[in-house]
Amino acid sequence: MLAAFAADFAEPPGPSGEWRGGDRMASGAVQRPWAEDRGWLERFVGACSDAGWVRPDIDWGAWAQTPEAERLRTDPASLDTASVDDLACLLTTVIRSDRFVSGSLLGACESGLIGRIVRRAAVLASPR
Known about the structure:
Blueprint: H1 6-10, E1 17-20, E2 34-37, H2 39-50, H3 60-63, H4 67-74, H5 84-97, H6 104-110, H7 113-125
Antiparallel strand pairs: 1-2
């Protein structure tokens, strides 16, 4: 399922999103910025949820603090040996955290993390 998005992350069909807000209001207050995802990225998130990659059994907040999570997020080579469970933990963490920290998903796309996850999923899904 994730492999179907490989082309989108190799050559995105447009920006994955953009930052909005930050405007000064008439009252003088500054509107809080937020990330607005584009349609293809929203479809990707929906497909991840529908296919069970975003799992309710993962304590993503706790997992995100582990050395394993840090290694998988920051060391691109570590994804070469990532398991299906590792990918589910990463996707759950990034997608769920975006609901609490606007821009988490956009940042993961821009850093190449989501593209690396998709490529690893394609390898795992291919017949050997």
